[in-house]
Structure formats: structure tokens, C-alpha cells
Backbone:
């Protein structure tokens, strides 16, 4: 991945990642480059990136070559879990994992309501109360996620907090149209918007057969 040094001849064979890194961090490159690492986290390759993730932002190779990261280069890590990553690596990426048992999805809804009230971006003065009531009615009351995880199958595992976040993002986008037009949304319409967003956020990753059943 980074390169291999031949111990007999001393010849250096560049790796795939080191070549990509050189290309993206070439000072002549004036474009924004994104490097996406979406494979499983291996203890060896991720630890070798510690010099990149710290304040130095320099990739140090086994042949003593040092390639600094430019402002035009961005890195994204899309991994399933961090089982093989050390705390040092996790802290460098600024990642904090909070268990569902310690902090559930409900604070997301409460924060969403509070932020919109403080920013005064409401489609109706009663919007906060409506969201609270509808969340109790359709999600928390019937324990929706427990039912879905038991009876339905997802294309990929998704935490409830992610599904709630998707629902709130969709709801924000729909309501923005009315806020921009300075139009007030009534309760009946708001509930329809809420159900629509909830359906896509919760059921968007269902398998085909489960989508029809849902």
C-alpha cells in the first residue's frame, strides 16, 4: 500500500497509496483532491497514517521520503467499524463514539427543534410541539426501530441515530421551500411532510421485498 524496500538491492517499489498521495499533493496541482479510504481498518496501514493525521500532515515512507499534505488535498474515512484502530488514531481523526445505550437518538430531535426556534426559521409557531407529538406518535411510542429491526431487512446496517438524522435533514429541506416563500404550514400538511420524510429515512435502505411490505 505504501511501498516496499528490497533489502538486498535497496530498490524502492512505490505503493498504490503513496503514488496517489504524491499525485494529489503535488504543488503543481491546483485542484481540490479527495482521497476516500473505504476499506476495513487494518492495524498496520492505519497506524502508518498517524504522521498524516497529526499536526505535521506529512506521509513518511520507509525509504525516508516525506511527502507533506497540501491544502488542496482532503481525506475521508468511510469504514464499518474501528475495532482495529488504536485510540491514538481515533483521537487524531476527531472521532468520538457514543453508545446507543448511553445516548439515544431523541436528543437529535430536541436539538433540531431548539436550533430552529433560536434561529427563528419556523414554518409555524407550533412547529416544535408538532415534531414532539409526531415523534411520540410514530416513532418512540410504538418503538418503531425495534419493530423494524425485528421484521425487516436492510441492505446495510444503519443505526437509529443515522435514520433520525436523515429524516430531520429531509424535513428541513421540505420546510425550507415554505420558509423562503414566507408561507405558513398548517398542522395537517406538516404531519404529511413528517410521515413522508420518516418513510424515506427509515425505509430507504430496505430490501426490495421489504419496501413493498413496509
Residues:
Amino acid at each position: 500500500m505504501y511501498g516496499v524496500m528490497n533489502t538486498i538491492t535497496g530498490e524502492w517499489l512505490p505503493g498504490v497509496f503513496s503514488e496517489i498521495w504524491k499525485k494529489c499533493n503535488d504543488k503543481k496541482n491546483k485542484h481540490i483532491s479527495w482521497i476516500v479510504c473505504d476499506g476495513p481498518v487494518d492495524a498496520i496501514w492505519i497506524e502508518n497514517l498517524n504522521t498524516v493525521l497529526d499536526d505535521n500532515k506529512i506521509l513518511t515512507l520507509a525509504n525516508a521520503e516525506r511527502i507533506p499534505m497540501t491544502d488542496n488535498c482532503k481525506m475521508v474515512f468511510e469504514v464499518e467499524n474501528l475495532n482495529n484502530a488504536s485510540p491514538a488514531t481515533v483521537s487524531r481523526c476527531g472521532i468520538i463514539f457514543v453508545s446507543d445505550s448511553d445516548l439515544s437518538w431523541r436528543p437529535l430531535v430536541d436539538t433540531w427543534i431548539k436550533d430552529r426556534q433560536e434561529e427563528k426559521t419556523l414554518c409555524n409557531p407550533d412547529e416544535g410541539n408538532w415534531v414532539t407529538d409526531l415523534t411520540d406518535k410514530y416513532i418512540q411510542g410504538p418503538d418503531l426501530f425495534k419493530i423494524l429491526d425485528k421484521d425487516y431487512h436492510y441492505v446495510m446496517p444503519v443505526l437509529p441515530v443515522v435514520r433520525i438524522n436523515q429524516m430531520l435533514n429531509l424535513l428541513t429541506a421540505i420546510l425550507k421551500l415554505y420558509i423562503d416563500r414566507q408561507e405558513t404550514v398548517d398542522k395537517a400538511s406538516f404531519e404529511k411532510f413528517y410521515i413522508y420524510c420518516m418513510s424515506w429515512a427509515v425505509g430507504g435502505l430496505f430490501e426490495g421485498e421489504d419496501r413493498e411490505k413496509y
